[in-house]
Automatic annotation (TrEMBL):
Protein name: Malonic semialdehyde reductase
One term of GO molecular function: 3-hydroxypropionate dehydrogenase (NADP+) activity
Domain Nitroreductase per the UniProt entry, residue ranges: 22-172
InterPro entries membership: Nitroreductase, Nitroreductase-like, Nitroreductase_HadB/RutE
Amino acid sequence: MPLDETALDCLFHTARTPERWTDRPVDLDTVRALYDLVKLGPTSGNGSPARFVFLSTQDAKERLRPALSEGNVEKAMTAPVVVIVAHDPLFFDRFAQLNPEPSLRSWFAADVGLAEETAFRNGTLEGGYMILAARALGLDALPMSGFDATLVEDTFLLGEGWRANFLICLGYGEPVETPRAPRLSFDEACRVL
């Protein structure tokens, strides 16, 4: 059954990327509810390679500051939560838990390139689910890619072996007053064969 217009507005039509944040905090229960939605999205072989690091304290965000491009510093420092969207290159080690197909783990373990490509692609997909899940829960989301991934990995992910992909700032944004940027039309962006 299709979603009603109110839900579509929440997810797409009127949803906007915030330019500034309110002081309203994002509590841990909301963060957990967010992940509980994200984990339900489909991934290849149910591999679920995405890993998320939620930076919710000012101290944690300050550790992120040196990795941010200049234009992203204020956006991230003022956001209630910044999420490092990462992926686990060894995601296939979880197949005993996630997908009992006996040959699946060895297929990925034998091909590092395939495993990395699959982890990156599906981890990115899960990051997209996070943006939509955040909107569904009443949060605003600001994805960003202007950062030094190596520095983020060295600062936050080193012990895990995860790879940084992009960041998502989460919180409750102030109303956006600038017009929505243009989008490509169906005929410009799509082909039906």
